[in-house]
Each structure stands twice: as C-alpha cells, then as structure tokens.
Amino acid sequence: MQRRQFLAATGLAALHGISLASETEALLPKTPIRIIVGFPPGGGTDVMSRVLSQQLSLRWNRTVIVENKAGAAGVIAAEYVAKQPPDGATLLMTNFSNHTIAPSLYPKIGYVAERDFTPIVLVGTTPCLLICRKEQLAQTIAEIIQRCKENPGTVSFGSSGPGSIQHLALEMFQLRAGVKALHTPYRGSAPMISDLMGGQIDYSFETMTSAAPHVKSGKVVAIAQTGLAHAKAQPDVPTVAESGFPGFDAKVWYGLAGPRGLPDALVQAMNKDVNEALLVPAVAEKLVSFGAEDGGGSAAQFNAFIASEKKKWTQVIRDAKVTV
Length: 324
Hints:
The protein is of the alpha/beta class. It has 2 domains: 3-126 and 252-320, D-Maltodextrin-Binding Protein, domain 2 (3-Layer(aba) Sandwich), CATH 3.40.190.150; 128-243, D-Maltodextrin-Binding Protein, domain 2 (3-Layer(aba) Sandwich). It is built from 13 helices and 9 strands. It has helices at residues 3-16, 24-27, 44-60, 75-82, 96-105, 113-116, 141-150, 165-177, 189-198, 208-217, 264-279, 281-289, 299-320, and strands spanning 33-37, 64-68, 90-95, 117-133, 156-159, 182-185, 203-207, 220-225, 251-259. Strands 1, 2, 3, 4, 5, 6, 7, 8 and 9 form a 9-stranded mixed beta sheet that branches. Strand 1, helix 3 and strand 2 form a beta-alpha-beta unit.
C-alpha cells in the first residue's frame, strides 16, 4: 500500500473507531494494557501518552489505559514498571528524566536503566524555549550573557524543580557561556511561570509544550529555543546553537519502554504499531502543536539515542557539580 493510501486508511479508521489489524494483538495478554506515566496529568509526558494510547487501542483491540504514578521526577513510575512481568501488559512512557537524569542524580534508585528496561520506540523530542516576561529589558542571548556577567549569581532562572530539563538546560548554558546565574526551583511549571510573568524571576528554559500557550497569548516572550533545528511549532524563534553556541542541544524526549525481558517479537510488533500511529495526520499534527518531533525509528535506534543522551547529561551534571 502506498504511504498516502496508508495514511488515509489509518486516519479514516481512527476517525470511525475501526480496529486496525496488528500482529501485536495476538502477542499481548487478554487484558487492558497500561501505559505508566511518572508525572501528573496534563504534563508533556502525560499528553503524549494519551494521544498515543487512543491509536494503540485501535491497533491492539485492547483498552489502553494511561495511569499516572507521579513523584520523584518519574522514578516512582520507573521503579514500578521495572518490577512488572515482561508480557506487554504494563509499559512505561519513559523520558529524559527517568532514563538519563535520575540515574546520575539519585544513586539509590531501584533500577538500572540499561538493565531493567526494554526500549521499544522513541515517541518524540521537544525543545525548551528560553522565555521572559514582556517587560524584561534584556531579550537576546547576548544581552542576557552581558547581564549575567555584570551581576554574577543574581539573574534568576526558574525551573520546575532540581534536576528538571529547565534546571539542566540552565547548567548547560552557564557552562557554555561562562556565566553564573541564580537557579530558582519550583514545585512544577505552573507556579514558576506565574512568578516569571509577575516579575519574581527573570527567565526560564521552559519546555515548549508548557511555554507555547503563554508565548501565543503575548504574556511571555520567546528568546531562543534549545534544539539544534527550528521546531515546526516555533519556526521564527532562533536557536541557542545559532546564537553563538554551536551544538547546544537541550531537549525533553518521550519514548515507550517495557520491563526487562520483553520478547523481541512483541517489541518489534509494538515498534511497528507506534511508527504507524505517528504517521496518522491527527496524531502528527497534535504532537507538532506541542513541539514534539522526530519520533519513530527502530528499537535499536531508540536504545542508542538513550545512551547518547545519558552520556551528554552525565557530563553536564559532573561538570556543573549538580546535586539534588
């Protein structure tokens, strides 16, 4: 079947709730399938999981439930899934935090990412937006660096908590720019953005998913984005990389994984289903609107991606002497 015909068929099937044939259906247990998310409802990981679960329900002829087990930067959910039977009934929507940051910041966590999980597929990557309130005077990378150099340790950058992408993007920025800023952690993005708009803090490397609505409303200004290329959702915002820091790449990512020992046939079947689901126009458009791109590929590619991300962020954590 040609790609255009396939997309039309899958899109029509999804629209009308028609089950899509899949090898996975025969390999899964006859129970609802759970995708465990380590963060509260409404966040990026949760949103990606819910968009995908609808498509997988159609393909697997199963109820696919998104279950939130929030806490400890996603560690609680990861520890839970690591202990589940490797039959495909319980999966983890893992991300930047579970697999690449937590092992470096929380040495006593109850899993070893490389040992205790089976990578299935990358769902998407999302850059951050460096944002400030519209009244802020310094609204370019160069101006922010100058301000940090003139007032070391006082220019404040908010984050959703220690070890978050906002925090580590700031640490990467400080290392590359040779400046010292003030990290101001919050309990989540919502109170942080509220304080940023109110003038209590100066800047944040907020996730595009969370920042974009406030940029669109005009309440905050997008100064730069942290991916290597311009995200489709923010084509006019320059990257940090092209603003004087080549190779600067700080993104959140999301991917599906199962417990250790998940059968290879099931991994390959699930991988195929997710790759097809990501091509459905309604799914692709939804993910792009959240700034999520570059999903799909093989399980082996996802495994290699996780390894490269872990190497990069472990180096940042070591060089910046980050502790939680």
